[in-house]
Structure formats: structure tokens, C-alpha cells
Write a sequence for this structure.
């Protein structure tokens, strides 16, 4: 990465996608690709891809394109794919249950290792082979299971209080599925996924696209 280069969040969100598609190219036996080939596969403008890659220095060669294995290794290291990340899920409703069943099956270095739900017994239970505890045991079990990040799928009224508890525990980041805009310390990373907003944006695009 270029020194003191701040990577835009939009670029950051695309990095795991680049890694996934590069894995597909490698599995197909491709040795090198152009930004246009990657663009065609990912449905992302090639200029956007080149701009994203430029934040990390010279990843390709003019007239040659990109070496697939070199790029794959680069993004694996950039995304810390060689290091496991343990995740805690907080809130096991319909969405939480779905996340437990899926449990990042295509991302072998990331796993939900523990979950918390207000309906779970204090001594714990299991859902989809994942231990689930009452939130009263959050601080204890979050540390015991070595969780670094948390996924929030709780009710809106509980979201900020839960984020405050995670902040006091020095959790590294939160993936927030609630519609609440959370206040967290600068040391904690926060990403918001509001499914209703995304759906409304899609409806707008559909209804306002040209014939």
C-alpha cells in the first residue's frame, strides 16, 4: 500500500469481492487477466477496478495485465486471510438464525464462534452447533471464545446499549444490521447494513430506470 494512503470505504468493501473472483480465476487455471476480464466477471466498471488497485501501488503491468496468483496472494495478505477471525453474534431472531446456519461457509478464516440472545438460558444452549448464551454473560463468554468482532441483529432499542458494552470490552468492530445509527469510539470500526434502505434504493432504481 502507498504510504499514508487512506482507502475509501467503497473500495474496502470491494476487496473481499476481488479476492473471491480471483480465486475463481485461479481455480479455472487462469495465469493472468486484464482489468476488463475482471470487470466482465464482477460487473464492475474496469476504471473503478484500476482505481481501486492504484491505492495499493503497481499491481499489474501495462500490456500484460495482472498476474492472478500474485494478486490472489496480495489480497489474501491484505485481508489477513491466513489468520482466523472469531465473531460473536448478538441477537438470534430470524436473521440471526440464518447467519448461524450460513456461518460464512465460503470464508474459511471467519467463523461465528458464540452467540447471545435474551431468550437463551443462562447456562447456554446450542443452535446450529454454535453455543448461545444469555446476554448477561456477554463479557465473560465473548472473551472466553476469543471473539474479535460482533454482529448486531438485536432490536433497535437494544442496539446502542449493546454497542456501549462492546466498546467497554474493547471489541474491535461491529457489523450493525439494526437501523440504529450507533455511536462508537474512534478505535472501534463500524459498518452498517440496513436491508430496508438497500431495498428502497433498489426499488427507486427499478422505477426510475429508462425503458
Amino acid at each position: 500500500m502507498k504510504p499514508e494512503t487512506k482507502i475509501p470505504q467503497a473500495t474496502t468493501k470491494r476487496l473481499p469481492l476481488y479476492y473471491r473472483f480471483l480465486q475463481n480465476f485461479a481455480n479455472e487455471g487462469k495465469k493472468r487477466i486484464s482489468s476488463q476480464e475482471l470487470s466482465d466477471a464482477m460487473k464492475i466498471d474496469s476504471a473503478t477496478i484500476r482505481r481501486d488497485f492504484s491505492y495499493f501501488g503497481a499491481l499489474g503491468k501495462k500490456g500484460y495485465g495482472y498476474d492472478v496468483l500474485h494478486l490472489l496472494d496480495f489480497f489474501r495478505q491484505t485481508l489477513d486471510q491466513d489468520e482466523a477471525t472469531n465473531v460473536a453474534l448478538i441477537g438470534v431472531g430470524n436473521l440471526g438464525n440464518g447467519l448461524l446456519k450460513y456461518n460464512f461457509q465460503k470464508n474459511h478464516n471467519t467463523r461465528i464462534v458464540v452467540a447471545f440472545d435474551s431468550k437463551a438460558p443462562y447456562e447456554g444452549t446450542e443452535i446450529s452447533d454454535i453455543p448461545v448464551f444469555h446476554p448477561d454473560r456477554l463479557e465473560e463468554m465473548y472473551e472466553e471464545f476469543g471473539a474479535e468482532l460482533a454482529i448486531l441483529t438485536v432490536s433497535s432499542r437494544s442496539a446502542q446499549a449493546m454497542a456501549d458494552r462492546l466498546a467497554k470490552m474493547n471489541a474491535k468492530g461491529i457489523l450493525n444490521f439494526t437501523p440504529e445509527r450507533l455511536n462508537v469510539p474512534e478505535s472501534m470500526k463500524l459498518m452498517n447494513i440496513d436491508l430496508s434502505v438497500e431495498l428502497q434504493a433498489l426499488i427507486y432504481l427499478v422505477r426510475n430506470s429508462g425503458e
User: Anything to note?
Assistant: The longest helix spans residues 9-27.
